[in-house]
Design a protein that fits this description.
The chain is of the alpha/beta class. It folds into two domains: 4-197, Rossmann fold (3-Layer(aba) Sandwich); 222-457, no CATH class. Helices cover 45% and strands 11% of the residues. The strands form two sheets. It has a six-stranded mixed sheet with strand order 2-3-1-4-5-6, sandwiched between helices. The chain has a three-stranded mixed sheet with strand order 7-9-8. Helix 2 crosses helix 5, helix 3 crosses helix 4 (102-112) and helix 8 (202-236) packs antiparallel against helix 9 (250-274).
């Protein structure tokens, strides 16, 4: 079966290219700008399902002079009772199609050669005479037309006014969309509107709708896997250091912090790639460990508090002087014995004699580990990022910023307790190696993280947000 051919048309600067970017999940398609008449030629993009083309989308130049073009078409028709499509074809074969109305001719030629046209309207605009003329011209092309109200997430959108105007023009299969704040339910409804007008292409549209739902499920599962690997690496990682009255563990703590920051940066890069975004789509200033600028300090107590992570007692006091790690002390052994799970960091941060007494007792070696508050913070940050990426259109121009992402308290999965007792699971800092035990832990943790992602994904979605035309 031949792919469904879709022409995307509309007045200059209504977001046609932005719509194609979002539908194709391709931020590199075409050029998006607030400058008028950016698209000067017809460009195509295919949507595949199982490696097979099911839809071809064609971006077209803007209809810059619809008023003049309609007058010209009416003059061509004259007193004859010619059908509109005959007049349009006569125009496309005329010298005017290569001259005064060259841009409009490119758009109309693509509409005539397509199965359906998506007529993109900026819902923030007032209804003007040019829009009425565009609708009439498109009606002459003898192809089904689906009006698409773009940028409906804006507070300036005049959605009801546009719907009323379109109904008066006998356009009732109207779709609402936003190319910046992605609403996959809105995308599904767009395909359903097309399906209602294109019975011969129902199968392709059904396949595309099912594929989009399947793709979202795969994104959730893959995101959960990446987050689980990050958490296992950080939770299981341990640094053995010698302790004593004359030993300064701060360099080891700093090295551990930098290692965790770099591991999070790697996880974020993989998440962006998974969703087909680029590093430019995320404000790296907020990421720890980028070009020496830490932005939000992953280990700072104020950062922990902002993400709903509570620290108490010695751990919080230790964080307040910059340690920010929960170094738990499970046992004390004199001489060269190992102090597994020491409370060294928290005690080190305490003022007064009590902290000094604990430090004075420390002998031998201890393990520096990242504690639960920091693990909670990592999980909260990655969940917030995935939630934002799921709702980000590929026409978005403004980068995501960590400080702008809605966050909430997250529960630390039980699987991490086992990870803390299994330092061989961590691949952090070049240590460790993949093992069946680590693989099982990652799979179990990924299932728990995926459940949290699905919970936040089911929450009511606000489409309010900025929009960039194109």
């Amino acid at each position: 079966m031949k792919p469904l051919r879709v022409a995307v048309v509309g007045h200059t600067n209504t977001g046609k290219t932005s719509l194609l970017r979002t539908l194709a999940r391709d931020a590199s398609f075409g050029e998006v700008s607030d400058r008028p008449a950016v698209t000067r030629h017809v460009e195509g993009r295919a949507l595949l399902v199982g490696g097979r083309r099911v839809m071809e989308l064609y971006d077209t130049p803007g209809l810059e002079d619809s008023i003049g073009l309609l007058d010209h078409l009416q003059a061509l028709r004259g007193d004859r009772r010619s059908e509109g499509i005959e007049v349009v074809r006569q125009f496309l074969a005329s010298p005017e199609a290569a001259g005064r109305f060259a841009q409009e001719a490119k758009a109309l030629r693509q509409v005539v050669e397509s199965d359906v046209a998506l007529y993109v309207l900026d819902a923030r605009d007032r209804v003007l005479g040019k829009h009425r003329d565009e609708l009439e011209i498109l009606g002459w092309c003898a192809r089904p037309i689906v009006p698409v109200l773009n940028f409906v997430a804006s507070d300036e959108a005049r959605t009801d006014t546009w719907r009323e105007h379109l109904s008066r023009a006998s356009m009732h299969a109207v779709a609402e969309f936003d190319t910046v704040v992605l609403d996959e339910e809105g995308e599904t409804r767009l395909y359903e509107k097309m399906r209602s007008l294109l019975d011969a292409h129902r199968e392709q549209l059904d396949e595309l709708i099912a594929d989009r739902r399947r793709h979202r499920e795969e994104l959730l599962a893959a995101s959960a896997r990446l987050i689980a690997e990050l958490l296992i690496d950080v939770a299981a990682h341990a640094v053995q250091v010698r302790t004593g009255p004359d030993v300064d563990v701060r360099p080891d703590v700093d090295a551990l912090r930098d290692r965790v920051r770099e591991r999070e940066r790697t996880a974020v890069a993989k998440l962006l790639e998974l969703f087909r975004f680029t590093p430019q789509d995320y404000d790296a200033a907020d990421l720890p460990g980028v070009d020496g600028h830490w932005g939000l300090d992953l280990f700072h107590p104020e950062t922990l508090k902002r993400f709903g992570v509570r620290t108490g007692g010695a751990a919080a006091a230790g964080a307040s002087v910059g340690l920010g790690l929960d170094l738990a002390l499970a046992g004390l052994s004199l001489g060269t014995g190992t102090l597994a799970g020491a409370a060294l960091g928290a005690a080190w941060g305490l003022a007064g004699k009590q902290g000094k007494r604990v430090l004075d007792r420390v002998r031998g070696y201890t393990e520096l580990r990242v504690g639960d508050p920091t693990l909670q913070l990592l999980l909260a940050r990655e969940v917030a990022l995935v939630r934002a990426l799921l709702r980000r259109g590929h026409a978005s121009v403004e980068p995501l910023r960590l400080g702008d992402l809605p966050t909430e308290r997250v529960r630390l999965p039980d699987t991490l307790r086992e990870a803390k007792a299994s330092p061989e699971w961590s691949l952090l800092g070049g240590g460790g190696a993949p093992s069946p035990q680590r693989g099982r832990a990652v799979r179990t943790l990924a299932a728990e993280v995926e459940a949290q992602l699905r919970r936040v994904d089911r929450e009511p979605r606000s489409l309010r947000g900025g929009a960039e035309p194109g």
